[in-house]
Predict the 3D structure of the following.
Amino acid sequence: MYLGQAIEEVIHPSPSDAAHDGAWSFLSLMLFPDVLAARWPASSDLSELARDRWIGNQVGRDRNYLKLAWRRWQVLGQVMTETQDPFGEDEFGALLERSAVARNTRLVQCAAREVASYGGDLGRMDFTRGLMRGLTALTGPLQLDILSDRELVELVRDTARKVDGRR
């Protein structure tokens, strides 16, 4: 999260620049190769870089490390500053990689708060996956964008209770 916060505060990429993969490739290869090398070092004796993490897949699912860190901060930074138990890679993935849900920032933030406060019997990762599956299923029959904040919180809590077995 701190990397995403630093990118936002120091570079503050415009949304139009952030939408272009080339901007993230430039940052990775020209400005911050040391950061990427520390997180994703060469993977073999041939010193091959983890291309999808360094420059991203230019088509399909993008995994550029800097872009993901910045996006996570943009969407979940406020929630992460509220919790003492930071999310792991799998929880971030479950929250942000379902396109039907990820476009609704309020929904993702509400789900993240529910995950952060979870203290049930399921592991937090299993709970997160179940919650996001349940919310994704609701995006078909319901237009979640028009719900008020209160309605959205109730919807997420109801879905969470079903996932956790608390009907």
In short: The first helix runs from residue 2 to 11.
